[in-house]
Sequence to fold (785 residues):
Amino acid sequence: MRTFLIKIFCFGVGFLVFDKILIPVRNHSPKLEVDKRLEQIVVGQIDADILIFGSSRGARSVVAYQIEESLNRSCYNLSYPGSHIVFHEYLLREVLGHRKNTKPSTIVLVVDDADVFKEAVSLDFRLDRLFPLVKYPSIRSELVRRGQKKWGFNEILVSHQINRSFLFMEQKQFSERDFILPCGSMLLDHQKPGLDFQYDDTPNSYSTDGELTPKVAAFDGFVSLCRENQLDLVVAITPNFRPATDGFKERLERQLNGYGTVFEFDSSVPEYRDHHYYYDYNHLQKNGAHLYTGELIDEIRSGSR
Amino acid sequence: MIFNSIEFAIFLPVVFGIYWFLANKNLKLQNGLIVAASYLFYGWWDYRFLSLIAFSSALDYFIGLNLGRENDEAKRRIWITASLVVNLGLLGFFKYFNFFIESFAGAFTWLGQTIEPTRLEIILPVGISFYTFQTLSYSIDIYQRKIEPCTEPVSFFAFVSFFPQLVAGPIERASNLLPQFHKPRVFDYGNAVDGMRQILWGLFKKIVVADGCAEYANLIFNHSEDYSGSMLLAGGLFFAFQIYGDFSGYSDIAIGVSRLFGFRLMQNFAFPYFSRSIAEFWRRWHISLSTWFRDYLYIPLGGSRVGIGSKIRNTFIIFTVSGFWHGANWTFIAWGVLNAVLFLPALLIKPQSPVSSVVAQGRMFPTLRELVAMLTTFLLTVFGWIFFRARDVGHACDMITGIFAKDTFKPLQLPHEANLVIYSVCFMMILEWLGRENQHALEKLGLKWYRPVRWMFYMALFMSLIVLAGEEQDFIYFQF
Fold:
């Protein structure tokens, strides 16, 4: 029995040492990523004055370099396609956590039309963006917080920190749709193939039915972070190839509770009814993005804390 | 509590420590600890299930005593009938009630009379099929005067609820396991170390192979209408390795854990995918269930000492009941019938090869004939597994038709990460091939290597459990 226990103990200790052969694999992983934005956040390299958060609507519809040129203030787009408000709140928290002395002054939160508080299958917390960066302690902590990793093991075992995708060691490439400009925006200059654009004039109104508490709480958290750090906040609604949802802007204003403003595109602009400005029903393409960003610039310029 | 969980990783060393350090040299205390630990292990799912297993244990303990005491054959028949009726009644109620009600309703609808079936909202107690068969075998063995009844309730309760094999087998016979509860146990270093190796290998098969394959098997089976024939076949292959890794992995862990406590359980899988015929496959797959049906159903029906017509009838009965044992669904019955059909040529034409024969014994590689026989047998089992995994019989038939009718030779369109799963399957099969003459793949592998190399190999395997883990899936056989 004694020998058995000693050998089990030795195996355990030996494994802790053996486990460390994975450190180079773990540390090399961020270099293989093509989207460096989250890594730039955690190493404190995102120092722009205006930051854009959102999902694909934010990435495709807001042109950060246009804002930078117009306002003469640095601007960076941190919108991630397929992400939801919980992820945006996490990103803002990370940014502020790594920029204690040089905070941004304006935050633009691009919301998903009518889906911001509701279940949307295409939107998620982009864990896939966090996993490759587990060499950074703050990322590991977040994964533990989200129940993706177990605290004790995460602290001592490199093998627990990584997963099987690390073993491919392949340099990732931009896809055609997800090319990231130096300013962080992801503009599209074509239409989605196979779409037969039909403008549907039928009005629709917003209902609070189906709102999810975690999403509402994340939105509140986002606003609180802006309030506590005295950042201007613009909650932006981007155009869709259909009429705006009645009552959605008011719903957002209620939730903002007096802090920040809700900016909705000017629905009287005829281009927003022209499909040549759209990639698909929900996303603008480059020409539409420039048009919308022009409107947004005026809003930011007016100041909106 | 499942084997591949943090809870079990804490539970096992704690029970092991108390068992060997505090309860050592006191057999009753050790058996009592096994009962307590087993009830904790089982109650972790749902404490309400405990009453059922306690009732089943008490009933068969009581019936066993009466069967042992009684000499009047008529009264003995009453006792064994009581055991069969209550045990199978409980199993039937929890597992098959809704199936029968729905099937009757379906039959009436087919005849033009619509009736609304009353379904019961009941949860299937985990492992009920396993421990019911184990306690039944005890009562039947006493009835047939093969064993003496157990007079120590703690030992008997420990035999029924022994946690390593409680929920998914091996289905132990009283003649093998029960006497082990009566003998003092001595810690055996070699046995414990090999038990640890078997646990490691079982975990690899479950966590890396089975859970990895499950992701792609689920994807393909759940969206089968979207896939080409080659992908549907890949789905069947993934499921074949999933169910093997899952179930044989569980058995390896169960046997390994038992060895840590000084018990020897029967071998449940003997490298079945290296079988050269369906008959051989069924001697190597889920051995504890196959032999249970052989001893308690096939032989009482006349076994092989009857005419060819009766043999065929018995074979169909065994396989159909075996399929139905797996679950209350027509897919399992279809799977059983299909296996009976595949079994028939062996029954009618070929004499069965001896149980102990191992393919390519004493050689590294099989002959071409052996290889062809193994591949053919394996592919036939894959078609069987499609019925086992499918939503319903129609779905299985559609998948099999699709394999031949929808771009059978189209290159596979699997995600990049599937390669790792395929490599892990290949690795498992190579090691299983190397260890096919032993009880498990790691039993003798590497024992002659330089110790640091052997330890690094074990560490790499252990590391793979963490790094290569697929999305966690329940053990498939828990649902049975």
Remarks:
- Chain A touches chain B through 23 residues (CB under 8 Å).
- The mean pLDDT of chain A is 90.
- The first strand of chain A starts at residue 50 and ends at 53.
